[in-house]
Amino acid sequence: MKLSYLDLMTTDPSYNLAMEQYVFDCLPRDRMYFMLWQNDNAIIVGKYQNTIAEINEEAVRERGIRVVRRLSGGGAVYHDMGNLNFTFITDVGESNALDLKLFCEPVVRTLATLGVKAEVNGRNDITIDGKKFSGNSQYIRQGRVMHHGTIMFDSDLSVVSEALRVDPTKIQTKGIRSVRSRVTNVAEHLPEKVTLPEFRRILLENILKENPGEAYPLTQDDLAAVEKLRAERYATWDWNYGFSPACTMLRRRRVDGCGLIEAYITVEHGKIAALTFKGDFFSASEPDELAAHFVGCMPDRAGYEKALGDVDVSRYFAGLQKDELIDILCEG
């Protein structure tokens, strides 16, 4: 089967994921497609995950991280400009089996030419010395497969851990939680210095050496269709947050002069469906009255601030200010 490649230069995650879907759904099925692309400062969540359960909302807000849901399952990943993404799209006939290893091996072989021994292990990882640098997932529909993976080449690992840091004891969800793994960057293992642009070029050359092909000529109509898909799906709150399965989160803190406050927040379709307060605090008014203000709001700082408005929080939690309550609700 012949191969066509797309070497994307945009770093907008909603556009790149729209391009993936467009290639999968609309381009001719007489060939295999290979894509290279990068997202700048983004969290990409799996199709079946609960977005709120996967992200550190405060870090996302402070760092301006974009959050986008992809078509495939698997766990949430952080992308920056030290990370390179690759995609294979091809027909698989009648098979619905997820053969992730087949599409990971070209990356392993490319690294071997650079003096790095990598291996495919676990259900969807490529590792070096037991440390993960590539996570992979697949989407299969109507005899066609989309396989995509990350390659952490020189990513800021401190941001990776901060952006996805969620205390697993504080959330119970029907969605699928990401499995946290020890991670590494490819650059740390190279015997000779190679830049990410150089590695990108080498990987593409090796793919074309194994599967000769040429760049796919996207038309203006193609590009317009991708932009429409981006705007109508991948850039929308409904897809990136609202598609999430229901979850219940626990936010808990002991405050000097007030006592222990526990907030049980139930989120459905990305908005608060119910909230219950528990603890050993003193209250002049029933906390359930306050909880009702939050129903229907988004579970983030802006949503909480809007829900509270001019409410005197100290009536419900003696010794607590509104900003302190919002801080508690945003923890995680």
Structure description:
The protein is α+β, with helices and mostly antiparallel strands. The chain folds into two domains: 240 residues, Bira Bifunctional Protein, Domain 2 (BirA Bifunctional Protein, domain 2, 2-Layer Sandwich); 84 residues, Enolase-like, domain 1. The protein is 31% helix and 28% strand. The chain contains eleven helices and 15 strands. The chain has an eight-stranded mixed sheet, with helices on both faces. Strands 11-13-14-15 form a four-stranded antiparallel sheet. Strands 4-3-5 form a three-stranded mixed sheet, with helices on both faces. α1 crosses α7, α4 packs across α6 and α10 packs antiparallel against α11. The N and C termini lie far apart (48 Å).
